[in-house]
Amino acid sequence: VMSILLHGDAAFAGQGVVYETFHLSDLPSYTTNGTIHVVVNNQIGFTTDPRMARSSPYPTDVARVVNAPIFHVNADDPEAVMYVCSVAAEWRNTYNKDVVVDLVCYRRRGHNEMDEPMFTQPLMYKQIHKQVPVLKKYADKLIADGTVTLQEFEEEIAKYDRICEEAYARSKDNKILHIKHWLDSPWPGFFTVDGEPKSMSCPPTGISEELLTHIGNVASSVPVSDFKIHSGLSRILKARSEMTKNRVVDWALAEYMAFGSVLKEGIHVRLSGQDVERGTF
């Protein structure tokens, strides 16, 4: 498995989660053995100029924090993009470290249907409107080289349009879901049998009070004998034992019961993060 993350240029420079994931990239138990970051760098974050959005010339400078190699490539040259991407994949495969591909390109239209970039970036957008689109530029080059004929090019375009049209037509019939194995946010009616297999219904997950009491008792005891525990901890365990006896729970005990019930079913639970080692959560 190789993870590929797609970023916008403004998001790459401006979102803390990017910096955080770079710093996770080499931690034991968290690493993906190298992520390929692809930055679609269209020189503008919604309506903001780069010089107003970040302090460094490149949005990708944040990747330097882990010494990840950064390739800047002209996105108007598809073959250069392919070459750089294959070098990036080879780097990741060889060194199992993050790598960044910065696609230097432009955004032809506004950020959304309501956005008119000519209001805020008139000079830039006058230049953009003069640009020959990359598909036409590359097709013209291939036809001039004799690599493909005009007819072959038009057939490919028609074939692609047909794929899109057929998918659009199919999307109107939502009874059949080919993607349900990775869909994790059900909408109303998702679990009804109409057009869905019965296995999609959710089994009851409740457990008996007897089992809850057992988990509560285990959660408030010390697993080894003759082991001196910190007095602060024994106070917590005592309070937990009292709660179990009185049939009340706080957040921590409720969480413990959830984990405990899953463990009882033989399912491995891994807690990770900065505060779990000390038992804060």
UniProtKB/TrEMBL annotation:
Pfam families: E1_dh. Its cofactor is thiamine diphosphate. Coiled coil: none annotated. Residues 2-179 form the Dehydrogenase E1 component domain. Signal peptide: none annotated. The keyword Oxidoreductase applies. GO terms for molecular function: oxoglutarate dehydrogenase (succinyl-transferring) activity; thiamine pyrophosphate binding. The keyword rRNA processing does not apply. One of its GO terms (cellular component) is mitochondrion. Keywords: Oxidoreductase, Thiamine pyrophosphate, Transit peptide. GO terms for biological process: tricarboxylic acid cycle. PANTHER family: 2-OXOGLUTARATE DEHYDROGENASE, 2-OXOGLUTARATE DEHYDROGENASE-LIKE, MITOCHONDRIAL. Belongs to the alpha-ketoglutarate dehydrogenase family. This is OGDHL protein.
